[in-house]
Amino acid sequence: MGRADTKARFELFDHGNGLYSFEETQEFLDDVPELGPYTYWGTTYASGLYNDQNEAMREAKALIPWLSEVC
Fold it and tell me: What's this model's pTM, rounded to 2 decimal places?
């Protein structure tokens, strides 16, 4: 799911072994000499592991302010 301005996104990962984690990525723009503007996605937050999906979502909403607006 993504932020309203589409410049950030959130992913919740199910590791298939009862553990969950999440990650926030954002779009960045750099000016590269001789090439000009360069847009790329970079990780701005990567969580640890959680034993429960709901626990992971609670923590994500506490740490990523815009997430509560979209879910």
Answer: 0.84
- Greater model confidence, 36 or 10: 10
* Nearest alpha carbon to residue 67 among 51, 52, 45, 40: 45
| Strands ordered across the beta sheet of 8-14 | 8-14, 20-32, 36-46
Dump the DSSP string for 43-58: EEEE---BS-HHHHHH
Residues 33 and 10: their CA atoms lie apart, in Å, by 31
pLDDT of 32 higher than 90: no
